Fold Hydrolase.
Amino acid sequence: MRVQTGDVRLFFDVEGAKLVPEGPAMRERPTVILLHGGPGSDHTEFVPFGSALAEVAQVVYLDHRGCGRSDRSGPERWNLETWADDVRAFCDALEIERPVVLGNSFGGMVAQAYAARYPDHPGKLILTSTTAKLRLDRMLHVFERLGGAQAADVARRFFADPMPNFHDYIRVCLPLYRQSPPEEDALRRAVLHLDVGGHFVAGEMQTYDLRADLARVRCPTLVLSGDLDPFATTADARDLVAALPRELVQARSFPRAGHAVLDDARDEALATIREFLGAP
């Protein structure tokens, strides 16, 4: 399904009911909007996790503009401010009130920007495997620890000039993102627009810094991280938590999980999120 939000149509899919029967009444469940990583990929990375979460919530998969099956728009609109505005416009178009917004990796950057720009809009915020600022020095250290000098060198070249080095990064570095076996054919299944990822990595990713903005967040926030994550390192997770209002933030790290924390620690992460949602 696609819905018009401003200048683009955004693709989305829904799993799980908003209202479920409970005795003589219908009980309302939270609506969780899943913001995928990338940019340039799509929501399909979320489907196994989202299907499990749909047991206690209505789950909405959303493809960002320029990504997956949403309209591409143009490079001048591939930025965190616009992607954040799209989340708000998407909710307005579908009359979703007080959503729980879960952003993973790049999607977590969008979720941070959205919650800071519209602090009274989200009901709750969940940030997984994400950062408030790029710290290449930390990243390269973990890549070298997990994959040796070759992995660190490929990552260094990719973040300096992404497009010529994209395929090397996918071949050498992407497997180090996870500690669990990847789902067969998962990458082939995704609709990829590498130019969107290249544009963001070469541009705004080099300079974005959301730490000061996070002081404006007004909703309960959960931060999940993996201790073996080469992209969003444990130090990055600590910085993210420290930037959020202390009275609103909860955090949990998983010692044997990488960047794919929702896969590497699926049962523990789901249990933590269910508790955060107040789900039975």
About this structure: The chain has one domain: 2-132+178-277. The longest strand covers residues 8-15. The mean pLDDT is 96.
